[in-house]
Amino acid sequence: MLNQDIGIVGAGISGLVAGIELRQAGGAVSIFESRSRTGGRIQSLQAGGLVIETGPEFIHGKLKETLSLLKKYNIPYEPIDGKMYKARNGRVEESLEWIEDWDVLLNKMKSLGRDLPFQEFLDKYFPEDRFGELKKSAIRFAEGFDLADVSTASTQALILEWGYEESEQFRIPAGYETLIHALENEFRQLGGKIFLNQPVKSVDWNSRKILLDIQDGQTFNMDKLIITIPLSSLNQQSPPAESITFIPALGEKQEAFGRIGFGTVIKIVMVWHSAFWKLLIPDAQFIFSDYFFPTWWTQYPEDIPMLTGWIGGPVAEKFADKPDTFFFEKAIESVASIFSVSAAQIKKDLKSYWIFNWKNEPWSRGAYSYGRVGFRHSKTVYRKPVESRIYFAGEACYDGPFPGTVESAVVSGLVTARNLLNDLYKINV
After folding, report:
1. Which residues of 122-272 form beta strands (DSSP E)?
2. How far apart are CA 47 and CA 260, in angstroms?
């Protein structure tokens, strides 16, 4: 039995899996969460029998830890197997090839010696005009999928992910939040405590005990602490009221927080009275275009008249301060252009919609991280415990082939909890 009070800051999936691991080992574990709910950037809304995912939606491949958790809790998941389409020149056509010359690009990225920012890499190794479309598509993918600023994004970080890209993807019909509820229930049943609406204002580790100062004036003393909050609350991208002050300051670690990229997303979910696009592309899964909302996906194979639009990376950052009405009109314009239907008709048939602007979401201020040049060193510093007392976990700590995913957050939470336990056992021995 561990005679330790262990605190976890953040009740997202990383904090919950870490909490279960530590509680099973006998630690007295308390999780402190700023929001009124658990789950962090995972949230599934229920609306008229539909599941609306505000954040993560897909499982990008046969990801070991994520699928293991779903199986453990008997949560059904299903493959998505629709086709990809591209809208160009007023037509929507099936995309038989992902991106022309994509393999040429990946091979050159894999053979790169010294890491370079992705834009610099493209300009150096693909200067010819014939690669213009390839470069454009690669930049669009890095910005839209990885949320990366290509002027600083690491080419080696991108190939670490792109080289492992799996074609098979899955969706949880009942919503990703069913996994959060299962984890929360297990943690509570094990005797773990969760304090909601309790944002941590400061962490004072000057003394033998770690003192947590909560914004409402409460204080808690801990022997060990795991920080799992989004990178934006550590790298000073968030408002001061949503950031944590460390006493004393963390020095090199604080610098590492600022050297890891953190991107944002604007997502719109639109539901019509009928799926008008099925007359043209009945088997569509993803639709790509050059319009303002460049990426759309359906609920295929489910027969649901819903389209989800996505803007990621620097473009989402640029327009983050715009009102929701701006994004609504741009979405209508994009859908109308893709399918050559009037905006008036699109609006007439629209039943409901939701807009999720993650840059403006309190306690997140963005979506997920990406690697900049030097990312390995930065993440090593990020993960390194402070005097075997304060530990860090979350998707931004992860250094593997599935960055920015739920899988990365789960892996990081598990690894960090086990490292903490190993350190405790060494001390006790």
Report:
1. 169-171, 193-195, 200-204, 210-214, 219-222, 224-227, 245-247, 261-263, 265-272
2. 36
Residue 343 pLDDT class (50, 70, 90 cuts): very high
Given a contact cutoff of 8 angstroms between Cβ atoms, the answer to whether 195 and 30 are in contact is yes
Q: Any idea which residue has 């239907």 for tokens?
A: 341
CA distance 5 to 154: 39
Distance CA 150, CA 119 (A): 5
Q: Containing H/E element for 356?
A: strand 350-357
DSSP state letter for 25: T
**Residue 71: CB atoms within 10 Å:** 11
Specify the pLDDT at position 166: 66
Angle between helices 102-110 and 132-144 (to 10 degrees): 70
pLDDT, average across residues 123-147: 95
Instruction: Round to whole Å and give the CA distance between 59 and 183.
Output: 17
The region, left, alpha or beta by phi > 0 then psi within -120 to 50, assigned to residue 144 is alpha
Here the contacts of 381-386 (C-beta below 8 Å, separation 24 or greater) are 381/252, 381/253, 381/255, 381/256, 382/253, 382/256, 382/257, 382/260, 383/416, 384/253, 385/419, 385/420, 385/423, 386/205, 386/250, 386/253
Dist CA 12 CA 33 (whole Å): 8
The conformation of residue 389, written as its DSSP 8-state character, comes to T
Q: What's the pLDDT tens digit per position in 245-299?
A: 999 999 899 999 999 999 999 999 999 999 999 999 999 999 999 999 999 999 9
Place of tokens 């319009």: 291
Render pLDDT for 12-47 as a digit per residue (tens, 0 to 9).
999 999 999 999 999 999 999 999 999 999 999 999
CA-nearest of 82, 108, 21 to 6 is: 21
Q: Which residues contact 106 (CB under 8 A, 6 or more apart)?
A: 159, 162, 163
* Listed range (131-135, 219-223, 422-426) with the worst mean pLDDT: 422-426
Q: Residues 6 or more apart from 263 whose CB is under 8 A from it? A: 146, 147, 148, 149, 312, 313, 314, 316, 317, 366, 367, 368, 369, 370
**Sign for the pseudo-dihedral over CA of 351, 60, 393, 149:** negative
Whether pLDDT at 132 is above 50: yes
What is the enclosing helix (H) or strand (E) of 252? helix 252-258
CB-count burial class (<10 Å; 0-12, 13-18, 19+) for 258: middle
Half-sphere exposure of 164 (CA within 13 A, CB side): 13
In this prediction, residue 425 carries a pLDDT of 84
Res. 85: pLDDT tops 80:
yes
